[in-house]
Amino acid sequence: MTAARRSTSASGRIAGGGQNLAMTPHRVAVLALDGVTPMALAIPAQIFGPRAQTPYQLTVCGPTRQVATAGGLTVAVDGGLADVLAADTVVVPGLDLDLRPLPAAVLDTLAEAQARGRRVVSICNGALALAAAGVLDGLHATTHWENIDELERDFPAVHVDRDVLYVDAGQVLTSGGVCCGIDLCLHIVRSDVGAAAANQIARRLVAPPHRDGGQAQYVPAPIPATGDTSLAATRAWALEQIERPLSLADLTRHAGMSQRSFMRRFTAETGTTPLQWLAGARIGRARELLETTELSIDQVAQNCGLGSAANLRLHFRRTLDTTPTAYRRTFTRRGGVQRHAVPS
User: Fold this and answer.
1) What are the phi and psi torsion angles at 92 (to 5°)?
2) Number of folded domains that form the chain
């Protein structure tokens, strides 16, 4: 079982009290502590900020009215620790670990939030704050690869998952490095209100719409960002051709590389294999079609390149532990995204 399979997204269950997020405001408290990493703080603020298609109400909280970030900035704090306990989801961003031990009031608040059934989330080494509060005891969790040994050594009650982007253990979710926090927060949006909303946010961020939690967070090979060696154009092309039965040879041919070089470069850039990436993209496309259109299950399977309803059901059962019909019913019941017919 991969980290991503420890997910509640398939069932449509909303963490933090089981609210219907399409109808009820969902309060998100981002706990900002002295030494917080600016980027780790910005990620949940950006993804859970106010939007018409999502119901999140975000408050930056802390034990004091302002905090000094690891980058030397001063951030105003709108809420206190009482607001953390009143939230439905609590997010703990990464921070400067040299400033430990954390205040006892902070650790007590995190432990109480978990005890009250709140959804508790960490980004990067914020997992160490959750571990210190006892929130991770008996659960699977991850953190930044530089801190993974410390988490495993100092908190033996935690089942540490190495080399993953994030772990969804139900009410408690943890991510690897800071950028993995983007993947985790988008995963939460996808679980709460669907793939269409998550993909729209990802497009605005120019972020990958979906990276499976089981992908490696640290790849030692150099990763090109842009230029002729990047395979971003091939991945974009594959998404445009997603309804076709693409093969490894098709992808390699488009990239103009040998298969061996293509496999090595693709894995370096994405942390997964081309065919695993393509399978995830097909499931993501199927989820969005099920949420936003009236296409039949057969038509959805054809439009996402999985060919048949039977094959789509197989992939949904294997990946999401549900069926396409049950998945569609969940989002229809929520009344979330406006649905419309599209040509098959």
Assistant:
1) -110, 105
2) 2
* Same domain assignment for residues 13 and 105: yes
**DSSP assignment of 202-263, as one string?**
HHHHT--S---TTS-S---S----SSTT--HHHHHHHHHTTTS---HHHHHHHHTS-HHHHH
Per-residue pLDDT band for 311 (boundaries 50, 70, 90) equals very high
pLDDT in tens, 54-112: 999 999 999 999 898 987 889 889 999 999 999 999 999 999 988 889 999 999 999 99
Pick from 302, 194, 161: nearest CA to 244: 302
State the CATH number of the domain containing residue 156: 3.40.50.880
Tokens representing residue 159 in the block = 């089942």
| E strands, the chain, in order | 26-31, 56-61, 66-68, 74-76, 89-92, 119-122, 140-141, 159-160, 166-168, 172-175
- Domain range holding 175? 3-205
Residue given tokens 């609590």 in the structure block: 90
Quick check: is 326 in a domain?
yes
In angstroms, the CA 189 to CA 274 distance is 25
Q: How far is CA 159 from CA 9, 148, 214, 228, in A?
A: 21, 11, 15, 41
Over residues 197-220, the pLDDT tens digits come to 888 888 888 776 556 554 444 433
pLDDT of residue 195: 83
End-to-end CA distance of the chain: 34
Of 167, 189, 205, the domain-final residue: 205
Q: Are 270 and 281 in contact (CB under 8 A)?
A: no
